[in-house]
């Protein structure tokens, strides 16, 4: 049985469209149709019901799909084990959030360059929400984000956990000692982008503190460079992982505030589609796991 035909079957089953599957496999719709027809003849059953608009699995196709996916996945894992990594070629699209860029992304890029010298990286830095959508839409191959992403055919591998700390400038006119959120209500709180987990956690902390929603201003930004610049200038306070601002904590421009409102940590994941025939995202995800494991707690 031809492995490429099984891979084609998996993609048609997932995408429910011969033409879209052909684009994904970089071939023609006629070639996809021929592969499926040949596979059906070999198996002696119809795998798909076809009409002018839709493609759906038959009962035989539904039973065959999990086994076909498992075979394609196992072959891919075997190829990963014995691959001559120096000969791997192509482009891998990686999406990462700012927190990982500040933490250890440069080390990952360097390791990929050494291990896969013929592989090109396209890098996109965005919010976790946007990157999650792009992963599901097939626009990026690997996301390093606040996850997980719960969707069909998506794999999530936990990378690390970052504690969220209240950070501010020593120039802020705050009382010494332990603080409540009400103690810095005169200053805006800079959070991550609206709708993100950290942003929702800040809103929840304000609510639990018994403050009216309008009593504390929450400003949003998807740029950590912007947030850190503003809080260094004493414009407000922020909730950030320590690794993002470590150099400014070390030089005294910023310090950790002792606030009684504790916030949940950020759980970071490597997220990628379980795509037959594309081993690079999983290989680079494994590298990211190793690098994150050696990162000091943040």
From TrEMBL:
GO molecular function: DNA-binding transcription factor activity; transcription cis-regulatory region binding
UniProt entry tagged with the keyword S-adenosyl-L-methionine: no
Cited SUPFAM superfamilies: Periplasmic binding protein-like II (SSF53850), Winged helix' DNA-binding domain (SSF46785)
Keywords, in A-Z order: DNA-binding, Transcription, Transcription regulation
CDD domains: PBP2_LTTR_substrate
Residue intervals of the HTH lysR-type domain: 1-58
Transcription is among the record's keywords: yes
Protein name (Swiss-Prot/TrEMBL): LysR family transcriptional regulator
Organism classification: Bacteria, Pseudomonadati, Pseudomonadota, Alphaproteobacteria, Hyphomicrobiales
């Amino acid at each position: 049985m031809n492995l490429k035909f099984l891979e084609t079957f998996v993609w048609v089953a997932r995408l429910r469209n011969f033409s879209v599957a052909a684009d994904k496999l970089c071939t023609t719709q006629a070639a996809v149709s021929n592969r499926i027809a040949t596979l059906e003849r070999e198996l002696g059953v119809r795998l798909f019901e076809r009409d002018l608009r839709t493609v759906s699995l038959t009962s035989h196709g539904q039973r065959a799909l999990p086994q076909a996916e498992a075979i394609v996945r196992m072959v891919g894992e075997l190829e990963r084990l014995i691959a001559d990594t120096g000969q791997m070629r192509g482009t891998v699209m990686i999406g990462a959030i700012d927190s990982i860029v500040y933490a250890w992304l440069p080390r990952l890029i360097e390791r990929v360059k050494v291990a896969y010298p013929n592989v090109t990286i396209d890098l996109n830095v965005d919010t976790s929400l946007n990157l999650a959508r792009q992963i599901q839409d097939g626009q990026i191959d690997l996301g390093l984000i606040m996850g997980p992403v719960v969707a069909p055919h998506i794999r999530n591998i936990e990378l690390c956990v970052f504690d969220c700390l209240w950070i501010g400038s020593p120039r802020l006119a705050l009382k010494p000692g332990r603080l409540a959120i009400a103690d810095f209500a005169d200053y805006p709180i800079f959070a991550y982008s609206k709708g993100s987990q950290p942003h929702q956690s800040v809103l929840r902390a304000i609510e639990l503190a018994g403050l009216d929603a309008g009593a504390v201003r929450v400003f949003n930004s998807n740029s950590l460079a912007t947030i850190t610049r503003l809080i260094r200038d004493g414009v407000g306070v922020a909730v950030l992982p320590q690794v993002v601002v470590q150099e400014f904590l070390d030089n005294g421009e910023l310090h950790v505030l002792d606030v009684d409102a504790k916030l949940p940590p950020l759980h970071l994941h490597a997220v990628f589609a379980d795509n037959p025939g594309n081993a690079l995202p999983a290989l680079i995800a494994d590298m990211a796991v190793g690098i994150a494991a050696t990162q000091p707690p943040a």
